[in-house]
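User: Can you model how magnesium ion sits in this protein?
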Amino acid sequence: MNNLLSNERKRYLKKVKLDKILVNVTRILILLVFLGLWEVLARLNVIDSFLMSMPSKIVATIIELSKSGELGMHLTTTLYETVLGFLIATSLGTIIALLLWWSEFLRKVLEPYIVVLNSLPKIALGPIIIVWFGAGTKSIIFMAVLITIIVTVITMLNGFLATEQTKILLMRSLGASKLQMLYKLVLPSSIPTFISCLKINVGMAWIGSIMGEYLVSKQGIGYLIVYGGQVFRLDLVMASTIILCALAGLMYALVALLEKILIKKK
Amino acid sequence: MDDILKLQNVCLTYQSDLFETEAVKDLSFSVKEKEFVSIIGPSGSGKTTILSLIAGLMPATRGEILYKGKEIKKVCENIGYMLQRDELFSWRTIEKNVFLPLEIKKINTEVNRSRAIELIDKYGLKDFSKSYPSQLSGGMRQRVALIRTLSSNPDLLLLDEPFSALDSQTRLKVVNDVYDIIKREGKTAVLVTHDISEAISLSDRIIVLTNRPAKVYKEHVLNFDKTLSPLKRREERGFSKTFNTLWRELNNE
Ligand SMILES: Nc1ncnc2c1ncn2[C@@H]1O[C@H](COP(=O)(O)OP(=O)(O)O)[C@@H](O)[C@H]1O
Ligand SMILES: [Mg+2]
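Assistant: Here's the modeled complex, given as structure tokens:
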């Protein structure tokens, strides 16, 4: 196969590959330079390592946390809250969006409520949630769901409603029922919307669970960050933040993988 | 021969919050079995509205529409509607797109599926039956759209400017293909278009509409040799004469 390629083609492919390598190398370099500068400047006391911490201390903190088993505990707590909040909000939100798609009446009636709920800063409901669900995991999950679900409903509903009118006309001319319209046309054509909704939701669920932990928790990554701040242990704050970055990135990667599986045929 | 389709004093008025639009007024015409009738009129004259009414997508404000003597009240099994664009579903293979009417009408049987596959093979899409629409050219996609319309075996085809989205080269070829398929399958067809030469090259009879609200202004029976393809018709002597007549009728109003 390879020897069938023309020289121009080979040169082109080589260039594409080179570009990709260059981008990746530069990315890693930026990170290394940043970390290196940080470490050096902190050691030379140009920046205050008490306020800014430094990479070596952060790594030491992470190692220490994982040795004592604390890291695992905090990590699973936050992961559990986030993933559960994500799943509940995504499925429930999609179902609500479906109902609203189905009934134009319901949609018109509920529109102002959705708009208000969407613009309301959900953290304002914190105290109410704590009173209702107690100062524990339940409240945190509820917060994650609350923050994620409204966006889900709005995104998915807009996706459903954006189904091409002419395709709807085609289905109507075939005598399609509303249910057939839904599962033969509206759902399949909304898969790209669903994927982008999942991507947004990953971020939203993290915001929700960390915010929830700021408010009430005794454990979890969010708790570690708040605690670290209170006792002025910036290594702990930085270490937790970096772990959070890694987790969020991992979850996003999973969704991207799902996207590849769902949209493999085009 | 009996009339397969008959419209009597059909009126349609669109309602909206601010005003109403009279799209069709006192329209009467009929179509015989296996006839190819074109309806021509300027854009906005109500052509799509007429087809939507025949397809049973909305009720007429007044008048009646009869298919084989029975009033059309809702979407009818035996009427196939082909839209301006192919409207193929990008997530379905060509074959699955063609099966769509069978699934919707709940007649997705072995017999009907193999009949549909036969159509795909017969009309030169065999190698593409497992491909996705994005892999096909515009002309081929339109052919698939026609085969999809035919898969549930309707008697009457409604064609709403099915060639207008194609470039002029592809268009002549697809017009030929579509004509050939419709004749070989022995279907009755009602085509609406604003393209005069397309109408002449395809039809047995042409109905000229007035400006909105649409009603019949003139009718022309064409007497071309039945064995001529649409492309060959364009070379006939009668072609340009008919073209001139129709052109004047469409523009002199
Ligand atoms: N759903 C609708 N509601 C209101 N007016 C419409 C609607 N559909 C079409 N019309 C109006 O009816 C007239 C005829 O439209 P149409 O049948 O689409 O014409 P054509 O297909 O000949 O271009 C136009 O003036 C158009 O604006
Ligand atoms: Mg039209």
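A couple of observations from the model: Chain A is about 85% helix and 0% strand. Residues 1-47 of chain A form one domain.
User: Helpful, thanks.
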